[in-house]
Structure formats: structure tokens, C-alpha cells
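Please fill in the sequence for the structure shown.

STRUCTURE ENCODING:
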């Protein structure tokens, strides 16, 4: 498989996943305070939205690369 086809397949998969899920979440641990042997920490969950235009663009570019390299 040549590199162009590999990039095209990765873009297609990423674009379809972005359209299906709309974003992703991750958890971040932050240290808030440390008082002697006592340590307080907070787990924050953040959600990153992926714009629809980015998913559609990735799919279009992936399909374009696959059709141009045949």
C-alpha cells in the first residue's frame, strides 16, 4: 500500500469518526492543595467538539485522494 492510499484511508476513518461522535472527552487530574500529609486533587472531564465541516472535509479529501491515485 503506497503512502497516499494510507493517508486517504486514515482521513476517511477520521472523518467518519468525527461525524459519528462529534468530539471526544478526556479526564485531567489537577492538584488543588497540599496541606501537610493531606493532598486534595480534582478530576476534571473536558469535552472537545470537532466541527462538522472538519469531518466532512476529511471525508472529501480522503475520497479525492483515493480516486486520483487509481
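FILLED IN BY: designer on duty
SEQUENCE:
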Amino acid at each position: 500500500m503506497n503512502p497516499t492510499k494510507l493517508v486517504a484511508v486514515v482521513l476517511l476513518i477520521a472523518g467518519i469518526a468525527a461525524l459519528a461522535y462529534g468530539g471526544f472527552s478526556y479526564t485531567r487530574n489537577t492538584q488543588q492543595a497540599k496541606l501537610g500529609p493531606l493532598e486534595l486533587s480534582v478530576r476534571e472531564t473536558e469535552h472537545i467538539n470537532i466541527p462538522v465541516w472538519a469531518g466532512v472535509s476529511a471525508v472529501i479529501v480522503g475520497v479525492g485522494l483515493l480516486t486520483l491515485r487509481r
